[in-house]
Design a protein that fits this description.
OB fold (Dihydrolipoamide Acetyltransferase, E2P), three-stranded antiparallel β-sheet, 43% helix, seven-stranded antiparallel β-sheet
Length: 239
């Protein structure tokens, strides 16, 4: 009888220990996830303030001069997308058209068109490699690009072929902070010149003496300004 009771007590003790261990693992895993998620959230909230706007510059990301970002993943894969600066300038995105969805791609190749009200900006690959897949979410929910440009709003995933040499030509997150400030000044000059050239009302543009640009400035701009913005801020900088 005592032997059975001893075995029962041992069984109960073992069950209790296993339950305690399981609970500790669950709690520990939850705390680790929360800490990791908190750290990731903190990184994504790095920003550069300009004229009462905050431009996100995530740590660990790279940027090219044509306003595409690059994020390094596992086993040499890269995700790419539009940076937050371009999101602010474009405004609401109506449609994303992927010009390439598989196969090899060279740095500077046209990969997508970003549409709004029938106009579009064409963007280019910031690196060379093999296209693994496009972001199907954007095909059904183009607004994801504006809501979350650095996570859900990625355009495509690429297997890097010349990452070391391509990375040398990109702008690090730390250097991007000053670069974005320079781009903001250049954008003001661009719209100031456009206002004079096309005799536009100053309500939608920044004047060179320190006026502010409306957010989503391209949204209300003419086709001519879209074309000139494409040339000035994207085409001329893609290489």
């Amino acid at each position: 009888m005592n032997t059975r009771q001893d075995e029962k007590r041992k069984e109960n003790t073992m069950t209790l220990l296993l339950g305690t261990l399981f609970a500790a693992l669950v709690i520990g895993g939850t705390m680790l996830y929360r800490a990791s998620h908190k750290e990731e959230t903190a990184k994504i909230r790095e920003f550069v303030p300009m004229d009462q706007r905050n431009f996100l510059i995530p740590e660990g990301y790279f940027f090219d001069a044509a306003h595409m970002w690059v994020s390094k993943g596992n086993e040499g894969s890269l995700r790419i997308g539009l940076d937050d600066f371009l999101q602010h300038v474009i405004g609401k995105v109506d449609k994303i058209e992927l010009l390439k969805s598989s196969g090899p791609v060279e740095k500077g190749d046209a990969i997508a068109r970003i549409y709004q009200n029938g106009r579009y900006l064409q963007v280019y690959a910031p690196v060379s490699g093999i296209i693994l897949n496009g972001n199907e979410l954007l095909l059904n929910d183009s607004a994801a690009m504006s809501r979350d440009p650095y996570h859900d709003g990625w355009i495509m995933e690429i297997q890097a072929m010349n990452w070391q040499s391509d990375r040398a030509a990109l702008i690090s997150a730390e250097k991007a902070k000053s670069w974005i400030k320079d781009e903001w000044v250049r954008l003001k000059d661009f719209f100031s010149f456009s206002a004079q050239k096309y005799e536009l009302a100053p309500v939608m543009v920044a004047m060179q003496d320190g006026g502010e640009i409306q957010d989503r400035a391209l949204q209300n701009s003419s086709d001519d300004i879209w074309q000139e913005f494409q040339i000035e801020f994207i085409d001329s900088a893609k290489n």
